[in-house]
């Protein structure tokens, strides 16, 4: 028992070592980039951290966190199953636009209206991801290829749907197309911070709850075990009676459902409509975050917070005369260092484990020899 | 027991973040600290692409630069991040107003909601927005009749075409670019109803690479040339450079957009085949707004730039164009009719 606990702690340390090492390397490289471009290497970080004290920036970060967290969890579900769902972006956008359209067409009392919108997003997201799942299980099409293509198809479908001939609306004199404004009964209530800083989207708490559910399902249920087992070794999982094809399909459906939710903080809390202004690329940021957070619900939560912070604090850089791209470069460096440092830490852990097992075996052998000789 | 604590950590860490982080901050703005006056100068918030897009943003930047030189302040230029939300834009404009920049000018309708909200928080700061009708006492809406200039481009195209086929290449299929298409097609048809117009959009929103990728413009133009077009009008920003290259290389006419592309250094190789350009004077519009604030007589409400007053127009810098007197005459006649109101140009195809 004592041994098991110790082993856990070591694993935890190794688990934290990866991201910490990655961030340190990314930070060092960013400083190098700044020095190389003839800029002050430290001040940008000071500016970014000092902007954290401002309430409106905090609210922005927290709201963005919800979107990123959900997108990253969607990616993480796939990763756990060894599925690379690059299509989170398309699933998220298609779900958002259809949820927005349904939200406009339907009128219902408050909670029901919101529920209908959310369910639409979940269903659309999972159907769109399910297409890739079916292609993989029935035809063996790589989900990497199919989800990228589905992203493009989703983009064109959305462009078609927001045309005025379909569901689009264009305000008089405006050059923007929207899907129309959802009635106020379909707005998710938020927590007002102040007139100036705006409000925290209520959906932030739903996102946190989804994180808890993710943790529970993956680590405390039979299904989660099957999923992780199939991800670790498909043949071993099959040998213990797991239907691999079913697992692929189900995890794609779940991944898509969570991806569908990713658009909800913004749709239900912020814009209340889908327009060409709706954020794109969220699904790709989700991949970064899932990698950085190692698919662990708490790790992903912190990673999402970090990326949201880099995003929001970087706009301050622009105002102080630094290029905001510094933050983008940092994000890129983080991804690179994450991949490298995780591999390093994994190898180190493996070596230590081998070493220890070797030691234990040697001790055992020694003991055996002694017993024999005795 | 362990299960409980792990669960507790999971939920506390995620949910409580929201509370703790926001609980401890100062209010970063006191609402209305807009220090009027032109001491800090103007601020320009670009659309995606920013300075250097050789098109729309650059035109606005030129007006900004002109004012900067004349009034002797530094000013501020900011660019958006990809994938940001309205809330980010609100924060960006708030920061600019808070720092005392006046006027704060937003380039493009993507700032519509942000300008609407921030202008209420800073009643003493003047805001400008290009291409959007959002209303407010301290908002100046810089809007253009792109369709009128495009109509003239259509007249010229219908006059010079020999194959009775002309092309239109739109960068991204947005309502704004559809105005260009509508005016162009109407201009062509009003001049010669037997001329066929090939219409092609490079990308659909939110994929805005159709304004940036010359390779896309080139292949679209080649497609239209194959279909028999001998004049191609593009409204595709930087991507249109590829369309001009394709048309000029094939010895056919190209019509430029936004700025006078006959005189664009990057297109010097193809200038002989750039018949004319349908321009949009964003430079002047931005400068006028900044000057009005400087003169303490800030513009507010709709500032419309049309053929009347030369807010939009068709350039006459190519001598090959001015040599075709019948074409120039037809264009000038059409212009007079639009200015007098005899012709109303459609804004939707």
From TrEMBL, chain A:
It is a multi-pass membrane protein. GO terms for molecular function: transmembrane transporter activity. InterPro entries: ABC_transp_permease. It comes from the Bacteria. Keywords: Cell membrane, Membrane, Transmembrane, Transmembrane helix. The chain crosses the membrane at residues 12-37, 57-79, 91-108, 114-135, 144-163, 200-218, 247-264, 284-310. It is found in: Cell membrane. GO terms for cellular component: plasma membrane. It holds the Pfam family BPD_transp_2. This is Sugar ABC transporter permease. It comes from Streptomyces smaragdinus.
From TrEMBL, chain B:
InterPro entries: BMP_lipoprotein, Peripla_BP_I, PnrA-like. It is found in: Cell membrane. One of its GO terms (cellular component) is plasma membrane. Transmembrane segments: none annotated. It comes from Streptomyces smaragdinus. Keywords: Cell membrane, Lipoprotein, Membrane, Signal. It comes from the Bacteria. Residues 1-18 form the signal peptide. The lineage of its organism: Bacteria, Bacillati, Actinomycetota, Actinomycetes, Kitasatosporales. Belongs to the BMP lipoprotein family. The gene is tmpC_1. PANTHER family: ABC TRANSPORTER GUANOSINE-BINDING PROTEIN NUPN, TRANSCRIPTIONAL ACTIVATOR PROTEIN MED. Its main location: membrane. This is Membrane lipoprotein TmpC.
């Amino acid at each position: 028992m004592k041994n098991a606990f110790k082993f856990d702690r070591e694993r935890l340390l190794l688990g934290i070592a990866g991201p910490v090492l990655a961030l340190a390397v990314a930070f060092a490289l960013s400083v190098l980039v700044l020095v190389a471009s003839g800029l002050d290497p430290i001040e940008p970080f000071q500016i970014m951290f000092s902007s954290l004290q401002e309430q409106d920036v905090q609210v922005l970060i927290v709201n963005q966190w919800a979107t990123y967290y959900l997108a990253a969890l969607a990616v993480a579900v796939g990763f756990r199953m060894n599925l690379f769902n690059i299509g989170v972006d398309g699933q998220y956008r298609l779900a958002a636009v259809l949820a927005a359209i349904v939200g406009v067409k339907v009128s219902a009392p408050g909670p029901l209206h919101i529920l209908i919108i959310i369910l639409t997003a979940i269903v659309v997201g999972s159907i769109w991801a399910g297409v890739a799942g079916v292609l993989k299980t029935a035809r063996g099409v790589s989900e990497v290829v199919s989800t990228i293509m589905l992203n493009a198809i989703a983009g064109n479908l959305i462009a078609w749907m927001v045309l005025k001939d379909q569901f689009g609306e264009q305000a008089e004199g405006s050059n923007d197309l929207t899907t129309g404004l959802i009635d106020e009964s379909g707005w998710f209530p938020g927590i007002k911070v102040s007139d100036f800083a705006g409000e925290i989207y209520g959906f932030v708490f739903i996102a946190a709850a989804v994180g808890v559910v993710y943790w529970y399902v993956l680590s405390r249920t039979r299904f989660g075990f099957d999923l992780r087992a199939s991800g670790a070794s498909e043949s071993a999982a099959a040998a213990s009676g797991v239907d691999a094809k079913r697992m692929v399909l189900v995890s794609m459906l779940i991944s898509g459902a969570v991806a569908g939710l990713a658009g909800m903080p913004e749709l239900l809390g912020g814009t209340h409509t889908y327009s060409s202004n709706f954020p794109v690329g969220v699904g790709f940021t989700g991949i970064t975050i899932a990698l950085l957070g190692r698919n662990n619900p708490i790790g992903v939560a912190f990673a999402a917070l970090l990326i949201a912070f880099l995003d929001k604090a970087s706009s301050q850089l622009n105002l102080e005369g630094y290029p905001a791209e510094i933050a983008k470069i940092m994000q890129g460096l983080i991804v690179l260092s994450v991949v490298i440092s995780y591999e390093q830490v994994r190898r180190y852990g493996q070596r230590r484990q081998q070493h220890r097992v070797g030691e234990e075996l040697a001790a055992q052998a020694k003991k055996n020899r002694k017993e024999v000789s005795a | 027991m362990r299960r409980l604590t792990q669960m507790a950590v999971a939920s506390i860490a995620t949910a409580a973040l929201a509370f703790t982080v926001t609980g401890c901050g100062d209010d970063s703005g006191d609402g209305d600290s807009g220090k009027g006056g032109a001491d800090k100068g103007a601020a320009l918030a670009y659309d995606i692409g920013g300075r250097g897009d050789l098109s729309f943003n650059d035109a606005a930047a030129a007006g900004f630069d002109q004012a900067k030189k004349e009034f002797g302040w530094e000013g501020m230029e900011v660019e958006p991040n990809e994938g940001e939300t309205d809330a980010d834009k609100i924060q960006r404009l708030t920061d600019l107003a808070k720092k005392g920049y006046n006027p704060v000018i937003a380039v493009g309708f993507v700032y519509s909601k942000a300008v609407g909200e921030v202008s209420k928080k800073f009643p003493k700061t003047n805001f400008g927005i290009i291409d959007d009708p959002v209303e407010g006492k301290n908002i100046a809406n810089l809007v253009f009749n792109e369709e009128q200039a495009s109509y003239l481009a259509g007249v010229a195209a219908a006059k010079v075409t020999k194959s009775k086929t002309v092309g239109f290449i739109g960068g991204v299929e947005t309502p704004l670019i559809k105005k260009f298409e509508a005016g162009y097609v109407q201009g062509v048809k009003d001049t010669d109803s037997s001329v066929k117009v090939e219409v092609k959009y490079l990308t659909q929103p939110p994929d805005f690479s159709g304004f940036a990728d010359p390779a896309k413009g080139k292949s679209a133009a080649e497609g239209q040339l194959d279909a028999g077009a001998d004049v191609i009008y593009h409204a595709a920003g930087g991507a249109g450079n590829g369309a001009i290259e394709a048309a000029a290389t094939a010895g056919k006419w190209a019509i430029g957009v936004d700025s006078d592309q006959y005189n664009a250094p990057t297109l010097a190789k193809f200038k002989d085949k750039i018949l004319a350009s349908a321009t949009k004077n964003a430079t002047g519009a931005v400068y006028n707004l900044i000057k009005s604030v400087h003169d303490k007589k800030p513009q507010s409400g709709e500032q419309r730039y049309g053929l009347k007053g030369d807010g939009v127009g068709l350039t006459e810098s190519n001598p090959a164009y001015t040599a075709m007197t019948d074409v120039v005459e037809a264009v000038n006649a059409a212009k007079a009719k639009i200015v007098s109101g005899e012709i109303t140009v459609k804004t939707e195809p």
